[in-house]
Amino acid sequence: MTTPAPSTLGSRVRRFWRQNGAGFLFISPWLIGFTLFMGWPFLRSVYLSFTSYDIVSPPHWIGTANYSSLLHDDPLFWKSLWVTFRYALVAVPLTTVVGIALALLLNVEVRGQAIFRTIFFLPSIVPSVATSVLFVWLLNPELGLVNGLLRAVGIEGPAWLTDTTWAPWSLALMSLWGVGGSMVIYLAGLKDIPTHLYEAARLDGANARQSLRHVTLPMLTPVIFFNVVMGVIGAFQYFTQAYVMTKGGPEGSTTFYALYLFQRAWQYLDMGYASAMAWILFIVVTSVTAVLFTSQKKWVHFGR
Amino acid sequence: MGKSRLSDRGNKLLVWIALVILSFPALLPAAWMVSTSLKGDTQVFAAGGKTAPPVSLASLIPKPIVVKNYPDALQAIPLRTYLRNTAFLCIVNITGAVLSSSIVAYGFARMRFFGKEVLFLVMIATLAVPEQVTMVPVFALYRALGWYGTYLPLTAPTFFGVPFFIFLLTQFFKTLPEEMAEASRLDGASEWKIFTRVMLPLSKPALATCALFQFMGTWNDFQGPLLYLNDPQKYTLAYGLQQFMSKNGGQWLMLMAAATVFTLPVIVVFFLAQKTFIQGIATTGGKS
C-alpha cells in the first residue's frame, strides 16, 4: 500500500462539511439559540453567583460571600425552601392520587363519559393568572363562594389567604383544580394497558380491587413516575400563583423559593445573590430528580 | 366485594354518581367567575345600610343578569389593547416556534452529522434546567441589546427552536415512512425540498399540537411580561389583569368580567381543537 495522500486541513474541513454541513444547517437555529440563551447564561450565572451585581454597574467578585450569607444569615432563604418543600410534599401526592382516581372513574364507560372528561379537564387550561384572580375572590372570607357554602352548613370558614396557617394549604388545595392535565395523561396510560392482562387476572380469580392493585397500578407506574417528576420540578418553580395571590404573605407563609429569588433579583437588585439562589435551586432540583430516578428501580414497572 | 366487576350495572351507577358529585367542585369556580361577572353591585356587596346578600348555590344565578361589567371593564382596563397585544404575541410565537422547531427536528430525525446523539441529549437536558438559573444573565443580555421594554425578549427566543417541540417533532418525524423521502431524493430533490414538500404536509397533526401548546404558553405567560414590559400600552392580558387587581383591589365585578374575557378564547380553542389537545397532552406523558 502506498502512503495515503496527505490530506490538508482544508480538504478535511471540506470533507467534514460535505458529510455534516446540511445536518448542522438544519439544527443551526437551535445551536445558536442554545449558545446564546442557554449555554452562555448558564455558565455566566455560575460566575455571577460569586459576585455582587446590580445589573447597572459591572459585577465585582466577592468570592463565596453570597453562598455563606444565604446559608448562615438568611432565615428567609431557609423559610422559602421549607415552604416550597412542604408544598411539593403535599401538592404532588394530592394531585397524583386525585388524578389517578379521576382517570379510573372516567375510564368506566358510563353515560356522559365524554362530557365528564371535558368537565374535569377544562379547569386545567384556564390561564393561571385568571385562576389566581378567581381564587382570591372565591376564597374571600366574607363574600367568597367557599365560605358562603360553608356558612350554609354552619361552618365559619377561615380567612384562607390572609391567615398564616391556612394560606399555604389554600394554594395546595387550589392546585387540585388544575389536576385535569395529569388526569388526561393517566387516562392515556390506562388505555395502553393491554386487556389480556385483565383477562388473565380474572381467570386467576382476581376481583376488581385485586386487579386494580396488581394490574392497573403497576402498569401505570411509568406514567405516575413521569407526572411526579414533572410535578416536583414544577413545584420548585412555583411562582405565578404566589405572586398574583399573596405576594408571598402573610408573614412569608407563601414565600416560595422562586418568588423569593425574584424579589431578591428584581426588587432588591441583588442579582449576584439571586444567581447563587438559582444555583442552589438547580442543585436541589437535580438531586431530587436524581433520587426519584434511582428510586424508580424499586417501584416503576417497565415492559409488558 | 364478591365477584362483582366494574362493568356491572350497579357499579356503573355508583361511578356515575361519584362523577356527578365531583363535577361540582370542578365546575363551581368557573361558574362563580361567570356568575359574578353578570351581577350588579347590590347582588354582591353590602350597600345602602344593607348587609351583603348571603352566598349560596342559588346565588350563583344572577338576578337580574347585569351585562354592564363588561363594558365597564373594557373602559377601566384597556382590555382591547391587551387582547390585541396578546394575540399578536401568540401569532408571532406560534410562527416562530413551529417553523424553527420543525426545521431543527428534521435535522435530528433524518440527517446524519457529527455529535448528533450527544447534542440531542443536551437538548433534552435543557428541559430540566429551571428557568431561574439562566434568568439573570439572559435579562442582562436583553438589556444590553436594548430589548428591555420591547416584545423582542418575549418573541425572539421562539425563533431558535423550542426544545420540547423539537423533541416531539423529532419523535414524530421518525415514525414517518422513509420511502417517500427516498423517492424524492432519487429524483434529485434537495433535503430542504424534501422537508418542505414531503415531510411537513405529512406532519400537520404534530405541528398543530406544537402550535396549540405555544398558543397556551404565550397566552398564559406571566413571568415574561412581568420581567420585560414597562409600558402599559404593551401589556398582555395576563400581566394587565394582575396589574389591575393589584392597583384596584375589590373591583370584583370588573375583574371577573375581565377574567372571563381572558379565559374564553382558550375555551373556544379547546372546543375547536379538542382532539389535538387531548392527544398532545397524552403523548407528552406517554413518550417519556
Structure commentary:
The complex is a heterodimer of chains A (304) and B (288). Chain A is mostly helical. In chain A, 71% of the residues lie in helices and 1% in strands. With 288 residues, chain B is mainly alpha-helical. Chain B folds into two domains: 42 residues, no CATH class; 214 residues, Orthogonal Bundle (MetI-like fold). In chain B, helix 4 crosses helix 11. Chain B starts with 8 loop residues before the first helix and ends with a helix. At the A-B interface, helix 1, helix 3, helix 4, helix 5 and helix 6 of A face helix 1, helix 4, helix 5, helix 6 and helix 11 of B.
Notable traits:
heterodimer, A: 304 residues, MetI-like fold, B: 288 residues, mainly alpha, 2 domains, 15 helices, 71% helix
CATH class of chain A: Mainly Alpha
Number of domains of chain A: 1
Unreliable stretches of chain B, pLDDT < 50, 5 or more residues?
A: none
Oligomer: heterodimer
Count of alpha/pi helices of chain B: 15
Summed up:
The complex is a heterodimer of chains A (304) and B (288). Chain A has 304 residues and is mainly α.
Give the arrangement of secondary structure elements.
The complex is a heterodimer of chains A (304) and B (288).
Chain A: H1 9-48, E1 51-52, E2 60-61, H2 65-73, H3 75-106, H4 113-121, H5 128-138, H6 145-152, H7 167-177, H8 180-191, H9 195-203, H10 208-236, H11 240-245, H12 257-267, H13 271-299
Antiparallel strand pairs in A: 1-2
Helix pairs in contact in A: 3-7, 3-8, 3-10, 3-12, 8-10, 9-10, 10-13, 12-13
Chain B: H1 9-37, H2 41-44, H3 69-76, H4 79-110, H5 116-126, H6 131-144, H7 152-155, H8 163-175, H9 178-186, H10 191-202, H11 204-220, H12 223-228, H13 237-247, H14 252-272, H15 274-286
Helix pairs in contact in B: 1-14, 3-14, 4-8, 4-11, 9-10, 11-15, 13-14
